[in-house]
Sequence to fold (464 residues):
Amino acid sequence: MRVLLVDLPARDGFVSKDTVVGGYGSRLLPFSRVTRIIGELKRRFLDVPSVQLAHIAAILARYGHEVIWSRGEIANVDVAIVLSSLVDHRHEAAWADRLRRATGAHVGFVGLAASKLPELFRGAADFVVIGEPESAVERLARGEVLTGDSVSAPAPDLDALPFARWDALEERGRHHVPFSPRPYGGGIPLLASRGCPEFCTYCPHRILAGHRVRSVSNIVDELETIRDRFRNPYVIFRDPLFTADRERALMLADEILARGLQLRFECETRLDRLDPDLLDALHRAGLRAMSFGVESVSSEILRRVGRRPTPEPHQRAILDHCRRRGIATAAFYVLGFLQDDWASIAATIDYSIALDSSVAQFKLLTPYPATPLWKQLAPRVYETDWEKFDGFTPTFEHPHLSPRELRFLLGAAYTRFYMRPSLVAHWTRVTARPVRSMVRWADGRIARRHARKERASMSRTVTC
Fold:
């Protein structure tokens, strides 16, 4: 059997899917000069291959089937499996329908969007996989013809799954890029666990299946296969909480060193699940970048959405330690929680600058389907186009801020964070005191200029 695995690039803006936003995906349509630059950087550095499809490829190959990868190229195959997203579902469905008409292939969809909103894909598909895809794909590989909504149980033992198969992809991670730990073209994604043990009401990472982990030896065995296939690999751990278990993270670092694996990697985690000794151990093993959610500077707002606050002194201490070790940091912020107003969002933007991570990502609060937040905010949701649930578009009636104000504040956050000399000094690791003093002076002047422009724009925004 010939099987086409399809991960379509977006028609508009930059779309991240696979495990991003739990699998619903995110779309950045640039809305300012700064976001145009960020969109281009995302295209160059964040367009990584799909780890979900790579696991599906491994199962099919285990049973002797031929696997063909596609970024939109149509081929004569028996079956096509399309990676779904919420933010680009119309494009994905239209492409699948066109493939069926052109080749007669049996077409199915996988992913969180297909699992939670199968009605978006049924008209263009012969089957829609509901759940983690491996169980259904194994039935397909054994000869079962999947039809309709095909329920797929979560994998109970992650160690039993075959390693993600990358042999059909061109080699990545060979091009060095100044000031960035991640190479041009992204890296090789790897899942060391699935699900999330936290209870944030707005996050889709825990709505498909429960939290499970792979054994340390199994993870490092896969790292060895990646090292053997790719020269100087850069591995992207896609777990939402990589250091959930401190001892397990230390064991992983020790095992990487014990086997003499030469690689670099990045991860996503919580700052309160880190300490200097753990960071040092992970750095010795190859950690060069990490991302984490700050979300809001207000502890009370975070508690209201089920997120445990991390004390500010600890956040600052961890980032200071990362700077000393040369570990790049990416902080995530969410604007527009129900308790937010102009003052609280302005405080969060100010805090993002004070924390001074290497990069920052700002998004608007979005009530994603099947999350606890969706159940709470459904009566307030006015947006009916699921593709607008992209993280950058207002979708519900906010009690204190209009959609225009929310978009204005989002743009201001990106401008204030990225349009300042101290960020360049941070990226280039300038430490000389006279230079840093001059940079701080320049930051103050530029901040005042931003403030003048914002006041002028603010009056137009509020009155429109």
